[in-house]
């Protein structure tokens, strides 16, 4: 079992790979793994969209999910690193945003001098 989380736009449904958020040369091919969304909309425009679970139900769900995580991630001595990455689309958006910021910072420096 491979454990990993990928951060992506909500409209994305296909993830051939995930990219390390700080080192784009580190990538993990995701085929043939299965995906399960872990975030769900619970409020919109101040209105509750789903039923609220009681504390015991939420605690039980949390314990069940934690039990699925392999022991090598939960140990205190030499734990495995849990992989977290971003989608290709999010990575491309980050590159474009960084380029805009660099340009604006450069223009700011020119004006400031």
Automatic annotation (TrEMBL):
Residue intervals of the Nicotinate phosphoribosyltransferase C-terminal domain: 4-92
Cited InterPro entries: NAPRTase_C (IPR041619), Nicotinate_pribotase-like_C (IPR036068)
Pfam families (UniProt xref): NAPRTase_C (PF17956)
Highest taxon of the lineage: Bacteria
Protein name: Nicotinate phosphoribosyltransferase C-terminal domain-containing protein
Source organism per UniProt: Citricoccus parietis
């Amino acid at each position: 079992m491979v454990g990993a989380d990928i951060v992506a736009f909500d409209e994305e449904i296909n993830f051939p790979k995930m990219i390390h958020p700080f080192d784009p040369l580190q990538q993990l091919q995701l085929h043939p793994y299965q995906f399960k969304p872990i975030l769900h909309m619970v409020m919109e425009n101040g209105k509750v969209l789903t039923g609220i679970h009681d504390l015991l139900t939420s605690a039980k769900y949390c314990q069940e999910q934690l039990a699925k995580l392999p022991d090598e991630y939960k140990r205190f001595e030499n734990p495995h690193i849990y992989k977290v990455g971003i989608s290709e689309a999010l990575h491309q958006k980050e590159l474009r945003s960084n380029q805009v910021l660099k340009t604006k910072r450069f223009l700011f420096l020119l004006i400031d001098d």
